[in-house]
Amino acid sequence: MPQQLSLWNKNLAVGSKTFPITISGEKLDLPNAEIMFYSQGIPQSDADCCFQQLATEIIWRQDSITLYQKSIALPRLTAWYGDPGKTYTYSGIEMLPTPWTPTLLAIKSQVEALAGVQFNSVLLNLYRHGRDSVAWHSDDEPELGENPTIASVSLGGTRRFCLKHRQQRHLRHHLELTHGSILLMLGCTQHYWQHQIPKTQKLVPPRINLTFRTILDFEAPFLPRRWQSQDNSLSEKPRFESFPVGSAK
Ligand SMILES: O=C(O)CCC(=O)C(=O)O
Question: What is the mean pLDDT of residues 15-32?
């Protein structure tokens, strides 16, 4: 059974308004994972306000990856905001940070209070419709450090979040990420679990997801061992190992 956590009260400031937040969360009962889920992390009307603000102020980009010498557009739009110099690279895509907006800073301060860590960057995904998705991956880029804390905020249409254990393939779980929900992934979770947002044939409203992260200043010799091969060169990150080529949008 999920573990019920204590209530948490704060004020969320968006623009000139502040909103009270009350959060009740649960810890997912999964081995080798520390995942907290707050289904009503941000109250409905506040989440509506955040969605509207972000939908108008975020500068979205359409990135592509190269697979089998073909350029394939990612099936979603993305954006990277953060402190100066906090660059993020995944699947060969380098993202330079756009400066924080007041809305992003307001949400950041709330998730920091919830997670108990300071974040210096956020990856945003815009799922325009049910054909947008993110493939199986772990958030385990070297610049996130060994045991990253990731705080994921969902706004807009509900989408299914699937988890699978990297070694024990029969271990799977899913939950519905609803408007205003917050998911925290902590500790060793990224070592053992992959996650995805699959495509759906249902008619779903657009969804904005924000994953707050802490980019470390690191030197290559100190990268986690799993990112180094025997000759000490970097191994390719397996983020798109199961990327469905035919269905990429
Ligand atoms: O949209 C989501 O909830 C997940 C996003 C995600 O996994 C990522 O950006 O790494």
Answer: 76
Single-letter amino acid code for the residue at 106: A
Write down how long the chain is. Answer: 249
- φ/ψ of 73, rounded to 5, equals -70, 135
User: Which of 76, 125, 139, 240 to mutate to test ligand 1, by most ligand atoms within 8 A of the CB atom?
Assistant: 125
Residue 225's SS3 state is: helix
Output the six-digit token pair for 14.
């968006």
Which residue bears the tokens 């988890």? Answer: 163
Residue 189 parent element (H or E): helix 189-192
Mean pLDDT of 93-107: 95
Interval between CA 163 and ligand 1 midpoint (Å): 11
Q: Where do the H-state alpha helices sit in 28-90?
A: 44-57
Tokens of 106: 């307001």
Contact, 79 vs 124, CB < 8 A? Answer: yes
Q: Which residues contact 13 (CB under 8 A, 6 or more apart)?
A: 19, 106, 109
Domains of the chain: 3-218+235-247 (2.60.120.590)
Position 180, amino acid: G
- pLDDT tier for residue 90 given thresholds of 50, 70 and 90: confident
Pairing of strands 182-186, 150-156: antiparallel
Q: Is the CB of 134 under 6 A from ligand 1?
A: yes
Which stretches within 11-168 are classed as H helix? Answer: 44-57, 102-115
Ligand 1 pocket, residue 122 CB under 6 Å: no
pLDDT at residue 181, rounded to an integer = 97
